[in-house]
Specification:
The chain is α/β, with parallel strands linked by helices. It has 8 helices and 7 strands; from the N terminus they run E-H-E-H-E-H-E-H-E-H-H-E-H-H-E. The structure holds NADP nicotinamide-adenine-dinucleotide phosphate. NADP nicotinamide-adenine-dinucleotide phosphate binds next to helix 1 and helix 4.
Length: 240
């Protein structure tokens, strides 16, 4: 059985991806930061479907904690390795540039961009040694096209896109693919404060997407069938 780590899997898109990967036969490591009850609920949903999972909490923005937790996991699972890494944990702290505080800038970059770096640096070496791996980074249309009020978030996501493209070139010959998924508006806690009725008029498909739709794409990119796709940014945005 292959192991998959999904960061930020307690809620939203991460939870849906964790459930999908478990359905596809992976043992899922459910990462989260603080919401243990939501993480337990993800695990219960997986087990109710006959899947297997365990909780693996850490703050992705804390490089030392990431390294320690994942190195300890590896030491306890000598014959195994994490074959699929989904870097999904992320936060929004929107503000116009001239009001943007250091904390709003730093927290968003620390979680998304630095978090992706810390988990990936730790796990990619095992994938390359085993000559198989899948790294899937959840970015955003905001990091591709830009979005007013999201310079911090767009910068973080655009940074991950650069990381994705460069790392894909480093790992392709070891059968480790690295891709990014760029969602548009998806119904989760992150978007619950947005005016969906107004914003959906901007979307050609005239609706917000579902976390499960993102999860189906992640499931495909994680599969053996997606072995010739690497270094790509795949949008899932209803045409936005
Ligand atoms: P969400 O519902 O707000 O869930 C965020 C998840 O990230 C939670 O599981 C949370 O854990 C975890 N998390 C936050 N900070 C963390 C940290 N420092 N360490 C570990 N885990 C952390 O968000 P979502 O909408 O599902 O978004 C998931 C990803 O998709 C994000 O990267 C987001 O930028 C991206 N995205 C979302 C949309 C959208 O419309 N929703 C669009 C484009 C891209 P706790 O439960 O412990 O807090």
């Amino acid at each position: 059985m292959k192991y998959a780590l999904v960061t930020g899997a307690s809620r939203g898109i991460g939870r849906a991806i964790a459930i999908k990967l478990a359905q596809d036969g992976f043992f899922v490591l459910i990462n989260y930061q603080s919401n243990i009850s939501a993480a337990e609920e993800t695990k219960t949903l997986i087990e109710a479907n006959g899947g297997t999972a365990e909780l693996l909490p850490f703050d992705v923005a804390d490089g030392a904690a990431v390294e320690k937790t994942l190195t300890e996991w590896q030491a306890a699972h000598e014959d195994e390795y994490i074959a699929v890494l989904v870097n999904n944990a992320g936060i929004r702290r929107d503000n116009l540039m001239f009001w943007l505080t250091d904390e709003e800038w730093k927290s968003v970059l620390d979680t998304s961009l630095n978090g992706t770096f810390y988990t990936t640096r730790t796990l990619v070496k095992y994938m390359m040694n085993k000559k198989f791996g899948r790294i899937i980074n959840i970015v955003s249309i905001s990091g591709v096209n830009g979005m007013a009020g999201q310079t911090n978030y767009s910068a973080a996501k655009a940074g991950i896109i650069g990381l994705t493209k460069s790392l894909a070139l480093e790992t392709a010959k070891k059968r480790v693919t690295v891709n990014a998924i760029a969602p548009g508006f998806i119904e989760t806690d992150m978007t619950k404060d947005l005016n969906q009725d107004e914003l959906k008029k901007l979307v050609p498909a005239q609706r917000f997407g579902k976390a499960e739709e993102v999860a189906d794409l992640a499931g495909f990119l994680a599969s053996e069938k997606a072995g010739y796709i690497t270094g790509q940014v795949v949008a899932i945005s209803g045409g936005l």
